[in-house]
Amino acid sequence: MTAAQLSLHRMSIDGELVTASATLEVIDPATAAPFATVPDCSREQLESAVKAAQRAFTKWGAEPFEERRRLVNAFIEAVVADVETLASLITHEQGKPLAKAKSEINSAVFFSRGYAALDLAPQVLRDTATQRVELRRRPLGVVGAITAWNYPVLLAMWKIVPAVLAGNTVVLKPSPYTPLATLRLGELAQKVFPRGVVNVVSGGNALGAWMTEHPGIRKIAFTGSGPTGKRIMASAAGNLKRLTLELGGNDAGIVLADADPAKVAADLFWAKFSNCGQVCAALKRMYVHRSVYAKVCEELVKFAATVKIGNGMEEGMDIGPIQNKAQYDLVHAMVDEALEAGAEVLYRSPVPAGPGLFLPITILTNVTPAMRVVKEEVFGPVLTITPYDDEEDALRWANETEYGLGGSVWGSDIEHAAGLAARLDSGGAWVNQHPAMGPDIPFGGVKGSGLGVELGQLGLEEYTSVQVLNVKLGG
Ligand code: NAD
User: Fold this and answer.
1) With contact defined as beta carbons under 8 Å apart, do 198 and 162 qualify?
2) Is pLDDT above 50 for 220?
3) 431-452 pLDDT, tens per residue?
4) What is the DSSP string of 382-395?
5) Does the annotation count 280 as an active-site position?
6) Residues 280, 297, 461, 462: which is the catalytic one?
7) Residue 16 catalytic?
8) I need a surface site. Which of 117, 156, 366, 412 has the fewest CB within 10 A?
């Protein structure tokens, strides 16, 4: 990436690429040093973005679906063509290894193509001699999209694509920790969509709050933490905004007595440690039947020892640093507290020396439900493992959480495992995998993990309102 690409990042408002009078620094977590600045969007600029999106909506929302699909596909192709630049931006701002940044973009493209293959055709509810009733899906208007820092491009595409395909226009705000690749997506969008259809603004948390209370925005599509999700819900009440809230998780994985430890170890490991453990639907708590507990621990440790942690721009790294200092300190504190309260380290990997925000891969045993590493979401490379004797206990512990994003059961008797998985109190229930997603499969949480779903037909329909067209026939 050239110096110019690293330094010049602009917002997209009403088809123009713009700066702001204030700026925010972006820090590379692999060096803990600032390396870029982005505009800090003013309230007036947000007003311009919302007004532009409202103006654009009158025409965009009325375009034939096929025309919107054509432009969405052109946007997806523009992202494909820009993969090198986008990936480099992601690695510098987010920390994940370059190959993983490319995978993030590839999967954003894969999921986006899935959305672009869907339809919103009217559904005929009644068609008789006297009445024709159709259920129609109409766009909402301006969608405010707010994203987290763990998968900047994936999360942004999961929002832009269904929103505009359904006929809405968008004002998108990335996390202040990872704004660069998303601003770049905004630039790409300007080459494809009419002005005002996709606006991307960068700024801090206050900008997010201005969006959620804005009367011109009809829906907030949010990915982030539970506490922010609750604030958004309260703030969105002003004009009864529609909401999709994809929040945190504290997913459990139950390993049954008939699981083959050697066969599942790698999958169990990555279920937790992908993206340095910064995955909402990561397997954060593992409950293992006592008969296979020692062997599962042994296989996990053996696998963990093969994994390389380091600067994501270096060849061959599997895991990068944690994305930001606040998260680094929080994960550290949670582990220290657990150790003080009696938890034991089953495995702790070496890490590169600072100043980068590198945390060791840490596997803890002898944990209790009262410890924060068990009770709360650990958004970092820490896994807890607890043995159980009775499956009913494991299921109860798995469900004893305020969260409900995903959960998994691992074993050889698939029907038995599926039966147990179906009793997990979570939006996703997986067997021998964790998480499992697809463009045609809705993804979302229950309880404290959120509202609504993304992906699949249901995910697209979240960006619409229902209109019932009821026609009296026959005089
Ligand atoms: P966060 O809630 O701190 O921030 C998310 C976004 O919200 C950022 O863009 C931030 O600027 C903005 N924001 C902050 N305060 C706001 C306010 N008052 N009003 C409006 N917007 C505001 O979350 P984070 O630390 O960026 O992300 C980590 C969390 O996201 C974890 O809990 C993780 O589990 C969750 N997450 C969930 C999913 C999912 O799909 N369920 C996916 C990825 C991450």
Assistant:
1) no
2) yes
3) 999 999 999 999 999 999 999 9
4) EEEEEEES-HHHHH
5) yes
6) 280
7) no
8) 117
